[in-house]
Amino acid sequence: MLSFKNIEYLIALLVIVPLVFLFLNTLYWKKKTKKAIGDNNLVDALTKNYSSRFFRIKFMVLLVAVALLVIAGANLRKPSPQDDEKRAGIDIMVALDVSRSMLGEDVKPSRLVKARQLVSVLMDKLDNNRIGLVLFAGQAYLQMPLTADIAAAKLFISNATPDVIPVQGTVISDALQVCNNSLDTKEKKYKAILLITDGEDHDARIEQTIKQLYDNGVIVNTIGVGTTEGSTIIDPVTNEPKRDINGQTVITKLNEAELKLIAEKTGGVYHRLDNTANVVADVAGTIDGMNKKLITGEGSEKHYASFFPLFIALALLLLVGEVFIPEVKKLSK
Q: How far is CA 70 from the centre of its chain?
């Protein structure tokens, strides 16, 4: 379907109104001047070679050229045919932990930054699939439903911080449940969850959630961020290590055992985020090895064929042609 990229530019077409007014005013002035001279026969004799018809044609040509230039600026376009192409892929929900424990700096520059970098690179490798995003801490929120729009997904990932979740903590089962609800429950395959967290779970419902995911045919691949030695959490307000109610410095550690269990019981694979390039290659390889379904390009970043060069060319042609339109009649011999 045809559409304008910059539809607000069409308001410039209103410039035609004052131009028409000036043209009509010019015609009125000419008529008034002729009457002021008084001798119509003399004026007709002096202006017998002048063509009012050509004068009007020249104005109409200029008017059309202006309109074409405005439409060119608004950029009339239509979607390219390849946007409707189907491709083989699966539905992937990314569950990203944004709890304050992800601010730990046992991996540089921090667990959360490292995780965001991983997802951003990984999305380029998974562009044949539909991707959704869930952010979680003490609660889980669907940030982006399944879409093929990789650019939009990257934008959401870049803005993922602990501030987007008001309740702190790490409730993995809630995140997995939101992901499961966002996937097609009628299908028992073609879907996966990519869980990225340090694994510090504070929810006893994880076993029940894992069983539900397995029954629904959802494969969960887990990525552990952090180290087993752990790290302090720097309070962004005081810029000092976070302490518990007893005044002891809080140490957050990677809980690999739980992440391995989640992956194992759903048929997925656990990866530890140490080398981003290796993890990206491994995860992409795992997902590429899954059974796939046909996915349309609907919802992806559209590509358009623009018509503005045609409108500009027509406008220039009219402007050049207007120069060669005379205002005098062709004299007969």
A: 27
- Comparing 164 with 314, the larger pLDDT belongs to 314
pTM over 0.90: no
Query: Is pLDDT above 90 for 269?
Result: yes
Which residues are paired to 220 by β-bridges? Answer: 193
pLDDT tens for 71-120 read: 999 988 886 655 555 667 889 999 999 988 888 888 888 899 999 999 99
Distance CA 286, CA 275 (A): 17
Q: How many CB atoms lie within 10 A of CB 208?
A: 11
The single-letter code of the amino acid at 172 is I
Report the DSSP beta bridge partners of residue 78: 305
How far apart, in whole angstroms, are the C-alpha atoms of residue 162 and residue 113? 11
Structure tokens belonging to residue 156: 């959401």
* For the chain, the helix, strand and coil percentages under 3-state DSSP, each to the nearest 5: 45, 20, 35
Beta-carbon contacts of residue 197 (< 8 Å; ≥ 6 apart): 95, 96, 97, 102, 170, 172, 222, 223, 224, 225, 259
Tokens in use for 236?
């962004």
Strand partners, 252: 231
Residue ranges of domains in the chain, CATH in brackets? 3-80+303-323 (no CATH), 85-296 (3.40.50.410)
Q: Which structure tokens are listed for 187?
A: 């299908």
